[in-house]
Amino acid sequence: MKLYHRCLLGISMAGSLQLASCATKTNTKTSTSETMTTEQKALETASADVHSYARPAEAVAKHLDLDIAVDFNSKTISGTASYLIDNLTKTNEIVFDVRGLQIEKVYLGDNKEETTFTLGENNTFLGQPLTVNIKPDTRTVTIQYKTSADAAALQWLNPQQTAGKKYPFLFTQSQAILARTWIPIQDSPGIRITYNATVKVPKELLAVMSASNPQEKNSSGVYTFEMKQPIPSYLMALSVGDLVFSKVGPQTGIYAEPATIEAAAYEFAEMDKMLVAAEKIYGKYRWDRYDLLVLPPSFPFGGMENPRLTFVTPTVLAKDRSLTSLIAHELAHSWSGNLVTNATWNDFWLNEGFTVYFERRIMEEIYGKEYAAMLNVLGYQDLQHTLDDIGRQNEDTRLKLDLEGRDPDEGLTDIAYEKGNAFLQNIERAVGREKFDQFVNKYFNTFAFKSTNTDLFLDFLRTELIKGDEELAEKINIEGWVFSPGLPADVQKPESTRFAAVAATYTSWANGTPAKQLDTKDWSSHEWLHFIRLLPAKMTPQQLTDLDTAFGFTNSGNSEVLAAWLLHTINNKYTKADKALETFLVNVGRRKFLIPLYKALLQTPEGKKKALAIYAKARPNYHAVSTVTIDDMLK
User: Pick from 346, 332, 311, 11: which is nearest to 174 by CA?
Assistant: First the structure.
């Protein structure tokens, strides 16, 4: 997932019920044996997942048949979730996660024998345990349910919030633990299921999922789906809207609203090149197709790696293909995250650190080392910002996290992404790229379609790569990178020759050269972003006007450049950009941009007044993932 990861989210803490639940789950954990399969180890880890009530080491879901109807009038989804289960211990109950769901009835077996169930005490973000009474030989559990109108995973858009302005739109966001708000499910990344689905929608709309997808509308409004590869619950995804499909390559294509499809097809025309480059580095793509769905602007993230159908923000439609590293990132997740998954959210770096590393390798393969170097420098800047923001000795700056009692979204920071990437680059330097690639390929193949955790990965690293070499172990420095806060002393600051030239240009401007005389010909958006980040915190109105007149930052069509510039306009009270700021905040729901802009506005009384006025207009356009943070910021 590419998202905003430069702030802590400050969401309420878990209650005593969850602590008791965690204690119970810990007590049922068995000791790890060398003879255990990787799947058994994953289930053992998932049983201790503090963000799920499920007890998969006792009874676990293996396959889901979902049969649901989407109702835009009531803003609800209703139907049945039927699970094929494995009752490993012949227990008399199985536990699912639910949050805000109305559970109507539960049935056992193919003949739908009604059974009893209980819902436990509700927790703010964990929801409730749904405990279903089963028999030792039960193989099928069917749950009849309905979502609430304010289900956190579901974003219901009215026609005016879409590109076409004619039809409503729905999309889901299940990561990290929001799948339980639209499906009763064992909502832990350590549990994987296959699924089939039947989805009924209004006849003028098309439904797509993280599965095999139709490429055009039918006359019935009923669509069927199959996901034959096992996936974790956070990759369950659904979107419904006025969508059309455009083919890019034999395995790739784009879904978007008709008003957006042409721009999207141009922007993402190099998807096939990225897929070829990825396969060259880490082996065959294992999900059959790789398609994109371009969502309306309210989507809270840059992208979401739902298998076979990446959800992507329209803010990357820069008209020059300059922001497509995001697509490389989501594609890389097809190996790191989707194929091999963090077993708990304490191990989030295994998803995102590997994905950032792989993303940069893909971009290097296509555009060269210097292009990847620019991305590494920008990422390192983001990491430094995060460390300054939350404190360099904060325990949350470790790669291996402890999120017990907290919403897992608090772990979605640049630490997992950029510190994780830096650790893997450190290993590559220690052993050489060829040897490291062989290791990563073996890691992906060993844990394919399974979940793993930090300890299992480090055991694999020691066995397959370090092999008792104490000098190599010291170079890799597991303790300093994984278990210690901040950055270790052996971190290497990335450098870029193109950015060095940008820095020289900035120095020329700082020394008095008018902006219009600067040599910025053929700069990429990365170079512009670096230039804006170099600008001083305090500037005069004359300096801001000089830059804006020469480069048109306030009217930039590049979301990254515009968002970075708007921070300067807020901090320096450059009122000429106020209209652009309001337009941006009202129309763009991507959390990466929203949080720093609102945070900057809140630094002054007049800024806070402006923020509240804008937010009153903008809030209906934002997903719950964004509003839960901004509501708290603005009180």
Answer: 311
Q: Model confidence at 75, in pLDDT bands (50, 70, 90)?
A: very high
Q: How many CA atoms lie within 13 A of 45 on its CB side?
A: 27
Per residue in 125-173, pLDDT (tens digit) is 999 999 999 999 999 999 999 999 999 999 999 998 899 999 999 999 9
Taking a C-beta distance cutoff of 8 angstroms, is the pair 213, 307 a contact?
no
Q: What confidence tens digit (pLDDT) does each residue in 199-214 have?
A: 999 999 999 999 999 9
Query: Where do we find the tokens 């194929």?
Result: 339
DSSP string, 72-89: TTTTEEEEEEEEEEEETT
Chain CA centroid to CA 100, Å = 22
Distance CA 187, CA 81 (A): 14
Which residue of the set 417, 443, 574, 615 is catalytic? 417
Local structure of 148: helix, strand or coil: coil
Active site includes 330?
Answer: yes
Contacts of residue 454, defined as CB under 8 A and 6 or more positions apart, other chains included, come to: 346, 347, 349, 350, 399, 400, 482
> Which residues make beta-bridge pairs with 98?
128
357 is catalytic: no
Strands (E), 233-363: 238-241, 244-247, 252-256, 290-294, 303-304, 309-312, 340-342
Describe the crossing of helices 497-510 and 525-534 by its angle, rounded to 10 degrees: 40
To 5 degrees, how large is the angle CA 386–CA 392–CA 394? 95
Measure the CA–CA gap between 394 and 312, rounded to whole angstroms.
Answer: 32
Given the residues 58, 257, 305, 330, select the one marked as catalytic. 330
- Record the tokens describing residue 418, joined without a space: 């950029």
> Tokens 């030239």 sit at which residue?
501
